[in-house]
DNA sequence: TCCGCTTGTGGGATCGATTGCATAAGGTTG
DNA sequence: CAACCTTATGCAATCGATCCCACAAGCGGA
């Protein structure tokens, strides 16, 4: 039915082996033969059968991308970056959405391995370390992004959450703020813990105690952001650092509804550089966690692993950090 | 190296053929044999090799998802829905991001066909109809979503943009507005054309002429939204319908900066139900284009095609419509 | 008893590209 | 000129699951 390598070989007057070598490049083939085969392939519109190629060569040119969802800005940014880099290097991406459910994740990991993926980019739950380590041992490349299980042997690319939160808090302190409120995620999450640590550290460095009444931690969800903001406003803070991204959707409307002037009455810093915060009035100062660079670096590491084929060297669980950047815009001013 | 069907067959004391049939289900196999094979497979941790299966059976259980980007809310919503449905039906999704570039799209389509995808979900550029029709003729399933080329033989699932825009405009007219400004996309795009048509139709039905000074059409981009809003405010509209989703990011800050009271001074309706507009203060009345249903319906149609394997029946270019819903919130009121 | 049918199982070819091994042609060196 | 190496090519096995075909066992009816 479809055109196979045999047809191309026939048209070019060579054997299948020679045709294969001519098209895959980089082996002993005379320039004329190579040209003849390439011409024949082009003329016939030959498209190689990846299933056959994968079966024999054990290289699928497939990369599995495992993540929680695509709604979160960091996640879909990373997904985009990964797909683009992959395509540029002639790899294809299999998308798997886990909802942060370890059971779904496990199922995806098993399925991906049946497809013979060459590597995996994981924003993982951290609950399947035994399985991921087994896959790693089988020679499948792997890089964890954003989250990393301590027991995982895969290298990880992490956001500098502590540094980012530290920079945001320091910025507010530099402006002269003392009553800096904090809205964060639960301490059970990586980012919740690290960002609070950054906030606390900055306060401590300037000799400021953290006032528990100014700290709100809760679910990654706008409703929590709204409640927390309402509570915090009663404490008369002069600045607010929202380190819980999803909560922002609740924080901003609550501030507007309460008629709080920004930055006149309250200085505001949020987390993650999403378009809305850039286009808001006044434009909101944010911490950019560097989602694009996270994705780029993860793919660099993964492609290195895949090409070297040396799980030993990479299976060290080494953690790389991507710097967070404070993007100063118009939402902060010295306190009155 | 890895455990193959041969190993499972050996452990269960049957032939490879029998083992294969026992695991693939739905053929003549005695219950005891089937149980024995399944047990052996489970005990050995057998994971079938998809490459081999695809090569022989010409079914990859892969679906290609081709779209512009993942930033746009409709697109990543559709991507999520497609992936979930696919996973539930034991298909995997290959993600391809085209940036709406026909050349990239073409390249992805060719690559996907080398992987032997069973079907394609396309938010396409419409510029590769010859190629998509060829793939369709080869037996690859296909459904276009949101955009559809007239020359394409694939069925399409389209948003009811005209109806949505009509409903939004009618809502404003019902409240008593007469000077209803419109911000849309270029007429060269499907959604730009259809949404303007809906606006115009609603106006016409109520005997209102469309005032060209109240209509702005331009790029899908916040900067355009900001300029357009600034120009429109000089025309003293009592209501604004923003049918260009990306422009919203420029429209809202401009309105806030100009101190326009909503809905007191100006009623506002936007397009697409994204979290920000739900949590804005006041909550913004929007037209929901039904991205989730678009994705669901597209997958339903695709799975039907793949299972029936009857390109004839489906290759009719038939267009399905998903209804748009007006979600009334707090951003509209009668004019003063 | 024999024929024909149903049900279950095995043998072996097959999908299409890759690759180890053999070999031929041409060139170099002592 | 013989021994040897380099370069280019072909042959045939191979990857692992599927599926056509053959065939055996069991059973009912004539």
Automatic annotation (TrEMBL), chains A, B:
<feature type="domain" description="HTH lacI-type">
    <location>
        <begin position="3"/>
        <end position="57"/>
    </location>
</feature>
<dbReference type="InterPro" id="IPR000843">
    <property type="entry name" value="HTH_LacI"/>
</dbReference>
<keyword id="KW-0238">DNA-binding</keyword>
<dbReference type="InterPro" id="IPR046335">
    <property type="entry name" value="LacI/GalR-like_sensor"/>
</dbReference>
<dbReference type="Pfam" id="PF00356">
    <property type="entry name" value="LacI"/>
</dbReference>
<protein>
    <submittedName>
        <fullName>LacI family transcriptional regulator</fullName>
    </submittedName>
</protein>
<keyword id="KW-0804">Transcription</keyword>
<dbReference type="GO" id="GO:0000976">
    <property type="term" value="F:transcription cis-regulatory region binding"/>
</dbReference>
<dbReference type="Pfam" id="PF13377">
    <property type="entry name" value="Peripla_BP_3"/>
</dbReference>
<dbReference type="GO" id="GO:0003700">
    <property type="term" value="F:DNA-binding transcription factor activity"/>
</dbReference>
<keyword id="KW-0805">Transcription regulation</keyword>
<dbReference type="InterPro" id="IPR028082">
    <property type="entry name" value="Peripla_BP_I"/>
</dbReference>
<dbReference type="InterPro" id="IPR010982">
    <property type="entry name" value="Lambda_DNA-bd_dom_sf"/>
</dbReference>
<keyword id="KW-0678">Repressor</keyword>
């Amino acid at each position: 039915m479809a055109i196979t390598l045999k047809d191309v070989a026939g048209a070019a007057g060579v054997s299948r082996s020679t045709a294969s070598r001519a098209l895959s490049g980089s082996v002993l083939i005379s320039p004329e033969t190579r040209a003849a085969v390439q011409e024949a392939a082009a003329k016939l519109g030959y498209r190689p059968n990846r299933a056959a190629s994968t079966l024999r060569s054990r290289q699928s040119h497939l990369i599995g991308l495992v993540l929680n969802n695509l709604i979160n800005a960091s996640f879909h940014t990373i997904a985009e970056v990964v797909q683009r880099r992959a395509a540029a290097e002639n790899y294809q991406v299999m998308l798997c959405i886990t909802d942060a459910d370890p059971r779904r994740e496990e199922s995806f990991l098993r399925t991906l391995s049946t497809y013979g993926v060459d590597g995996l980019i994981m924003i993982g739950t951290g609950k399947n370390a035994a399985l991921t380590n087994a896959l790693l041992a089988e020679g499948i490349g792997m890089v964890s992004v954003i989250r990393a299980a301590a027991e995982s042997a895969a290298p990880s690319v992490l956001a500098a959450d502590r540094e980012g939160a530290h920079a945001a808090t320091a910025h507010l302190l530099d402006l002269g703020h003392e009553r800096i409120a904090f809205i964060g995620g639960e301490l059970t999450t990586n980012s919740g813990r690290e960002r609070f640590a950054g906030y606390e550290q900055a306060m401590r460095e300037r000799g400021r105690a953290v006032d528990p009444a100014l700290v709100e931690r809760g679910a990654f969800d706008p409703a929590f952001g709204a409640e927390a903001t309402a509570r915090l406003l009663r404490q008369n803070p002069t600045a607010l650092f929202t380190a819980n991204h999803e909560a922002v959707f609740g924080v901003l409307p609550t501030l507007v509804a309460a008629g709080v002037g920004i930055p006149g009455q309250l200085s505001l810093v949020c987390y993650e550089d999403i378009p809305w915060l850039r286009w808001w009035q006044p434009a909101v100062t944010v911490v950019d966690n560097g989602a694009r660079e996270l994705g780029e670096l993860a793919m660099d590491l993964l492609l290195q692993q895949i090409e070297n084929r040396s799980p030993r060297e990479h299976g060290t669980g080494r953690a790389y950090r991507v710097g967070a950047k404070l993007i100063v815009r118009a939402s902060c001013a010295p306190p009155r």
